[in-house]
Each structure stands twice: as C-alpha cells, then as structure tokens.
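forwarding from the other thread:

> can someone predict this with 4'-deoxy-4'-aminopyridoxal-5'-phosphate?

sure thing
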Amino acid sequence: MGKSEALFEQAKRRIPGGVNSPVRAFGSVGATPRFIKSGSGAVITDVDGVSYIDYIGSWGPMLLGHNHPVIREAVIKAAENGLSFGAATESEVTMAELICGFFPSIDMVRMVNSGTEAVMSAIRVARGATGRDKILKFEGCYHGHCDAMLVSAGSGLMTSGVSASAGVTAGCARDTLTAPYNDLETVTRIFDRNKGELAAVIIEPVAANMGVVLPEDNFLAKLRALCDANGTLLIFDEVITGFRLGPGGAQERYGVYPDLTTFGKIIGGGMPVGAYGGRRELMEQVSPLGRVYQAGTLSGNPVAMAAGIAQLTYLKEHPEVYEHLESSAEKLFGGLQVLIRRYDAPCALNRIGSLGCLFFTPGPVRDYGGAKSADTGAYAEYFRHMLGSGIYLAPAQFEAMFISDAHQDAHIEKTLAAAEAFFGSRLK
Ligand code: PMP
C-alpha cells in the first residue's frame, strides 16, 4: 500500500469521507485521493514522491503556478510581522484599492475568508438593500455552501447526484428560485410571476461548476436588462472567473457589469480569502455603516492580504500573463479538439481563456441538462488513465480544467500524448 492509500485509510476514521472538502474525494472516478506534499510551477508531488502536471491549481487560485517566488516571499515577510491582529492594517487598504482599480463596477469592497462567505454576504446586502427575499440562481451553478445556495447546485453536489443538501430548511429553499442556464424565457417567466419580489439574480458569468458552460446569445446583457426593469440586483459570482478570464474578470470580457461581485480564492493567491463589492450606495448598507450585519475576526488577515496583493500586483505589472494563458489554453484545447476528431470521440469541449472542460458527451453543452448527459463512467476511465500518466485532472466530470502561467508547451505536449493514448486505446 502506498502512503496516499495508507493516509486515506487513516483519514477516513477521523474526517468525514477522509477529506475536508467533498470535491477532493476520488469516489466518483473510482480512485484513491493523492495526498499532496508539495507543488512547484505546474507540477505537484504526492507523499509517495509521484509528480503530476496539475490542471486543478487548488481549484483556480494558482494562476501563476504553485509556490510562485513572489507570493511566497510576500507571505514570509508578512508572517515575520505577526500572523493576525484582528485590527485594521495597511494591507487591507492596498488590497481594496487594487480590487477597485481592476473592477470599475466596484466602488467599495469587503474582505472575507472564502467564496461561500462572499456570496452569503452579497445576498444579504441584496436583500437588505431591496427589502425583498427571493433570489434567482441557475441550475448547475455553485455559489458555495450557504443554505440559500444549496438548491440545484453544481460541483460536488452535482457529482454526488443530489444538487440539494439535507439540513436546509424548506423556508430557506423556498426563497431560492432556479432557472436553466442560458434560458432567458424561463427567467422572464420567473420575473413575471414574482413581480416586485426578486432581490437578486446571482450567476457565474461563465459557469465552471457543471464543467464549463459559456453564456450564449448575450445572455448576461439580457439578464442585466431584466434586472434593471424589475428593480432586481445582478450579482456576478466571479470566484472562478475574476482575474482568470482577464484582469477585469468575466464582466470586462463580456462588457456587462453587475451591481455586486463576489470573489474567492484567486484574490488570495492560495491563502483563504474572499471578498464582495459593488456600487457605493449598496456597500454603504454594510455594518458598521449600515444595517446589513457582516463581520469576520480573520477577515483581511495580514498574511492572506500579502499573498493576494502580491498576486494581483504581479498581474497588474505583467499583463502578458493573460496572453500566455490564452496561448497555452489554445494549444491544449485545440490539441484535444484534434484528438476528438481524429478518434471520432463522442466528446464536446467548452473553453474560454484558461478555463475549459472536456465533456464525455457529443454536446453541445449549454446548460445543466446538457452537462448531465455526459458519460461519467467514460470520464472516470479517462481520469484514471491520465492520473496513471502523470496528469492530475479534476476527479469529477462536472468540474473545470485550470491552466496556469507555469504551464509550458512541454507540459501540454505530455498531456496531449496521454490523452491520445487514451482515445487510441478506446478505438481498438
Ligand atoms: N462560487 C463559485 C463560483 C465557486 O466556484 C466556489 C468554490 N469553488 C464558491 C463560490 C465557494 O467558494 P469557497 O469554496 O471558497 O467557499
């Protein structure tokens, strides 16, 4: 038995399912989670000393690759001054100014510790500001695990086939309405049936928790117009897309601007960080200025801020990162597309920038139903083959592939060679 297997057996006795977040479990792909010891650039190494080219990147934040020296040094320097004060620090001001500088839709921002907290808080602001209770979300979008968002959710819930959680009250779930992604007709109907009652529409502007699904046919702009016509706030959950699809996130890429934006892990460079922000009059509703209460002992933690500031400053000073991400992603997904054609594989690819997904269904995949039609058994085989070839993919079909600035041509060529061996072997 390898060390990872032994640790997993030990872990299962003390940690539910042996993991501290369900998306880390390898259950749906019939494998044992690898326990990771270290990471450098595009490569991670497990406790058995096996290295993998990593396409998860801690689920997004390692945009510059693992253990980037600039971020590591910033963290060490900050830690030398003390780990937490629960008091105001200069780094929080720097961070707020950086985020507002990148995102013109954000006048004010509040730091929290995770994407879940960011979303939960943004929803509270929307309800507080509008005096309305109902929220509309999209099937297959995941917005963290606050009660209101555990309805028709993607990511780990989708993989486990439940899409809703036990322990959420009926009252709470009743205030969360859902519509299929990209389905404006249903959204319009929901608006009509709930006149004056919808506080907010929340959406991943590019969905990345049911695999990757792109907004089609000006969907985001049409949502914006519907929200405006109904006094409903539009929340973009940019936990995945913010700073990944470009310095100004999905909103800049699509030219559609929300009232409130949520961020997560990526703005912490790997440290536990989240944030929500938006127009001044909305954010002025937040305590201690306003009546929407929201707090956090470790919010704006100086070590986490140092990592985030280092990552965001690096992106500001190195805009070429985005060109590199785009060209690497083009090579990888362009190469996969060639393989799909060459081997006549019943697969579909969705990609934007450095975010993409290979679906084991002919597609097209434009919503939750389409994603659900994927052959998860085939994905599991593909996953195990790739893992055995030193390629670390998401251990579930309904997750994204994340490319970092550290991925070089050699990594992509090795990945494509492994994928070709898989498709070739299935043809026989
Ligand atoms: N929103 C989105 C779009 C996410 O992808 C995630 C997590 N992957 C969250 C919110 C929740 O973030 P966290 O896991 O940091 O609570």
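Residues 320-342 form the longest helix (23 residues). thats all i got for now
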